[in-house]
Amino acid sequence: MGDDKMGGKPVVWVNAFQVKPGKLDEFMQIQSEELRSFAEQDTVNGALGSRLLRASHRDRAIAIALFESVEAHQSWLKEADFSAHYDKIKDLIEGAEGDYYTVEAAYGATIE
User: Fold this and answer.
1) Which CATH class is domain 3-101?
2) Reduced to 3 states, what is the DSSP secondary structure of residue 52?
3) Structure confidence by residue, pLDDT tens digits, 66-111
4) By three-state DSSP, how is residue 9 classified?
């Protein structure tokens, strides 16, 4: 999906993970470490922030990343090597699904 379909707005990449039963704590630890690593490097051009959310009663997690544009996210994906990270989580998940979203309305505080 190109920026033309996103209206030139910043985009949110949402990745929903179905985690294997009993593996959520381990998955969250690995994902949190990866998120901290990206934040510390601060070399992701066009990245505006990210969040990692944990379901309260199910083995699910959501990773949310805000980028200046679809192009910025796709450029980062081409530059980054996720193979080592994927090797860490592949046996912990049953599946994952991601997509781009735009913020159409917002109210209240940001999630911290």
Assistant:
1) alpha beta
2) strand
3) 999 999 888 888 877 777 888 999 999 999 999 999 888 888 876 6
4) coil
Q: Give the model confidence (pLDDT) of 24-56 as tens digits.
A: 999 999 999 988 887 777 667 888 888 999 999
Question: What is the distance between the alpha carbons of residues 68 and 56, in angstroms, rounded to a whole number?
Answer: 30
pTM higher than the cut 0.85: no
Closest CA to 67 of 5, 8, 4: 8
Are 59 and 1 spatial neighbours (Cβ–Cβ below 8 Å)?
Answer: no
Which string of DSSP letters, residue by residue, matches 58-78? SSEEEEEEEES-HHHHHHHHH
How many Å apart are CA 112 and CA 86, to the nearest integer? 26
